Each structure stands twice: as structure tokens, then as C-alpha cells.
């Protein structure tokens, strides 16, 4: 995983609970001892402050934005704060008073190593330098692609009309990077609330693991997309209604 801010990955293990028990993690009487409950800190005004991290699947957000927002362009710098405010509303609706303190916005993106040089430059030299953002990128390598035509029952490696070779660049490693960071940061006690911007049901086991340990995961997703993941999370936020708040001025 490429990024400008490397961090050693921590693998969840039973011994970790012992370390947490001796630090800032508390346990609720009557519940399983191995399920930690991390208490929020107090702000200057005496209010509860919950630590939050935002995890963003770049292409899940950007491709859906392109389909749903028309010609309007997204202002990526607005995304984390808008999601934090919406998550605070979900907490309040559940009777949980307090505010969220954004510690980090983690963005996971892939790029075509041959064609996406401008995207890679924007991710590394703009987005990664914005407050709270940490961008991790993975290169997608182009491969030959064969397409089967059901009409002639033949495989084609190039377009019969123009002769252009069929190529594709499959995405690899992004889901794994999200899951690794979500689990390791949860194990470190690095957040009370995680906001996961994705519609991918592959994240459900990781979400369940995190929530079994007393932490909350809020899913930021698109209307009629990723319902299984949204149901697995403690709460969900619909991005479609947030388009005006995230759009460029």
C-alpha cells in the first residue's frame, strides 16, 4: 500500500485485550470481559467527545457521484466534515449526546499505471495534503482481455471494427487495505466511531468484528445501493441527499 504516511499494521490478537485493559479501555459490568468499551473524553465545555475516523473507497464514491450528480463536481475537502455532521445527527437520534472529533480521513484509491498519471498526481500532491486526509494508492496493471461473442461463438482479442486490442486493468488490494486498517485501528482503540463510505458487502465481516467490540460503524452509501452493508452497520447515511453540501462552490 503506497502512501505518504506509512504506519505499521497491527494484527488483532487475544493478547491485545490485555494491553487495552491496562490503558484507556473500560469494560461494561455483566458483559463479556473480552468486549472493550472505549469511553469518550470530555471537551472543554464538559461535553462528550467521540473520536472518529472516515474510511473512503475512492472509486465507489467517485463513480456513483459521476452517475448521480450530473455535471456537478465533488469537493473532496468537504466530504469528511459533512459525513461527521450527519453521523452526529444519527448519534443524537439514538439519544447519544456528544460531538465527534475527526482524527483522520483515509482514502483508498487505485489507478491505471499507464493512463492515470494526472489522477495519481492529484491524489498524491493535492488530496493527500489536505487536513485530516491520508491517501493510499495501488496501481492497476493493464492486461490482455478476450471477449467471447455469443453470435459467432468466437473469442476476440481485438475490436473487429477498429482493430484496437481489448485491455483491462483490474483493481486489486483496495478492499484488503480498507479491512486491514479498519481492524488494526479498532484493535489499537484509535476510534470510537468509524464512518465507512462504501457499498461493498465484502466489508460486512470486518464491520461485525469491529462492532462486536463495542465500537460503532456508520455506513455512508448511495440510495438503493449496498443495502446489505448498510443493514450490518450501526447506522447509515444516504449520500444522495448530501450532494448539494459536497458540491464545489
Can I get a quick summary?
With 249 residues, the protein is an alpha/beta fold. It has 8 helices and 14 strands. α5 (174-187) runs parallel beside α6.
List keywords for this structure.
Rossmann fold, 249 residues, single chain, globular, alpha/beta, 8 helices, 30% helix
Topology, number of strands = 14
The secondary structure category is alpha/beta
Quote the beta fraction.
Answer: 25-35%
The biggest sheet amounts to: 8 strands, mixed
Annotation field: number of helices: 8
CATH class categorisation of the domain at 47-141 and 171-246:
Alpha Beta
Order of helices and strands: EHEEEEHHEHEEEEEHEHEHEH
Radius of gyration: 21 Å
Shape descriptor reads: globular
CATH architecture of the domain at 47-141 and 171-246: 3-Layer(aba) Sandwich
- The CATH topology of the domain at 47-141 and 171-246 comes to Rossmann fold
**Roughly what percent helix?**
25-40%
Task: Pick out the low-confidence regions.
Answer: 1-38, 166-171
CATH superfamily of the domain at 47-141 and 171-246: 5'-nuclease
End-to-end distance, in Å? 33 Å
| Average pLDDT rating | 80
Amino acid at each position: 500500500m503506497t502512501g505518504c504516511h506509512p504506519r505499521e499494521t497491527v494484527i488483532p490478537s487475544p493478547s491485545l485485550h490485555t494491553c487495552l485493559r491496562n490503558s484507556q479501555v473500560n469494560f461494561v459490568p455483566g458483559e463479556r470481559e473480552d468486549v472493550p468499551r472505549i469511553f469518550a473524553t470530555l471537551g472543554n465545555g464538559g461535553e462528550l467527545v467521540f473520536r472518529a475516523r472516515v474510511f473512503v473507497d475512492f472509486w465507489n464514491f467517485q463513480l456513483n457521484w459521476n452517475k448521480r450528480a450530473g455535471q456537478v463536481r465533488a469537493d473532496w475537502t468537504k466530504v469528511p466534515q459533512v459525513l461527521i455532521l450527519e453521523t452526529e445527527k444519527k448519534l443524537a437520534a439514538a439519544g447519544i449526546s456528544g460531538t465527534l472529533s475527526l482524527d483522520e480521513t483515509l482514502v483508498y484509491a487505485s489507478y491505471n499505471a499507464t493512463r492515470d498519471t494526472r489522477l495519481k498526481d492529484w491524489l498524491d500532491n493535492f488530496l493527500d495534503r489536505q487536513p485530516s486526509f491520508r491517501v493510499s494508492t495501488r496501481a492497476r496493471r493493464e492486461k490482455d482481455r478476450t471477449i467471447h461473442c455469443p453470435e459467432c461463438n468466437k473469442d476476440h482479442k481485438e475490436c473487429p471494427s477498429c482493430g484496437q486490442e481489448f485491455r483491462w486493468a483490474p483493481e486489486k488490494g483496495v478492499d484488503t487495505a480498507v479491512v486491514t486498517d479498519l481492524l488494526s485501528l479498532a484493535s489499537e482503540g484509535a476510534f470510537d466511531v468509524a464512518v465507512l463510505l462504501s457499498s461493498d458487502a465484502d466489508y460486512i465481516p470486518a464491520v461485525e468484528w469491529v462492532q462486536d467490540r463495542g465500537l460503532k460503524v456508520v455506513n455512508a452509501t448511495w440510495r438503493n445501493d449496498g443495502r446489505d452493508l448498510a443493514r450490518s452497520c450501526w447506522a447509515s447515511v444516504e449520500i444522495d441527499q448530501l450532494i448539494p453540501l459536497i458540491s464545489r462552490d
